[in-house]
Amino acid sequence: MSMRHTMKARRALTAVAITTGLVLTVAGCGGDGGDGKSNDGSSSSTPTGKGSEGGEEPTESESQPPAADTVLAEVTGGDDNTTLIINSAVRDQGGFLTVNGKLRNGKGGSWVPNSWRGDEKELSGNGSSMAGASLVDRVGKKKYLILRDTDGRCLCTQFSGAFKENEEKSWFAQFPAPPADTTKVDFQIADMPVASIEISDGE
Fold first, then answer.
1. In which residue ranges is the amino acid composition biased (Low complexity) (predicted)?
2. For residue 16, which of 42, 48, 41 has the smallest C-alpha distance?
3. What is the distance between the alpha carbons of residues 176 and 199, in angstroms, rounded to a whole number?
């Protein structure tokens, strides 16, 4: 079993407590396509419990790169001409949905994704990370914010150092799992175009 899956299992006991404050009803989501990209502090509740042993978050090296030949979605945009690739979105029995992918710098010089941590005050300490990511279920009209521990650290990749020109790095992000009958969601982060992805079921 991979280190990432082991860490997910250790967090399974607290998934219900965390996800309570991280699943939001999206008013009129089906009408606007879920294009809202900012997650301010008023849009979520602070989770009351994490219980992560040692309080350590997964690091970039602990996320396993997905299979290179599988691409669920690929979008390019933003002020920095960044390319976001999503390779997998797996729902497990512990109540998590783990999204894996790659991020490529197309700026033409070094780039640090500082704005990708999101606008939530609770996530302000997650610089250069995927903390600002969210999922939108347009059919169920719900928005899922990224999971975090009681110290506000996201369960996601935090990149070390700046991206060099054309450099590509792997990433992962964990969310509360949507209901079993939800098979498609929209992935949103920063000023990137919305990426529609299909969910698969894991162990």
1. 39-50
2. 48
3. 13
Half-sphere exposure of 180 (CA within 13 A, CB side): 5
Looking at residues 15-39, what average pLDDT do you find? Answer: 49
Which one-letter DSSP state was computed for residue 38?
-
What are the two backbone dihedrals, phi and then psi, of residue 171, each rounded to the nearest 5 degrees?
Answer: -150, 160
pTM, rounded to two decimals: 0.70
Strands annotated E in the chain? 23-25, 73-77, 82-91, 96-104, 134-137, 142-145, 168-176, 184-188, 195-198, 200-201
3-class DSSP assignment, residue 135: strand
Distance CA 30, CA 173 (A): 24
Q: Which two tokens stand for residue 202?
A: 């894991």
Which of 62, 43, 38, 24 minimizes the C-alpha distance to 141? 24
174 within 8 A of 156, measured Cβ to Cβ: yes
Report the alpha-carbon angle 54-56-62, nearest 5.
130
- Summarised one tens digit per residue, pLDDT across range 113-166 is 988 998 888 888 899 999 999 999 999 999 999 999 999 999 999 999 899 999
Cα→Cα distances 2→5, 9, 103, 170, Å? 5, 11, 22, 16
Distance from C-alpha of 76 to C-alpha of 112, rounded to nearest angstrom: 16
What average pLDDT does range 57-86 have in this prediction?
Answer: 74
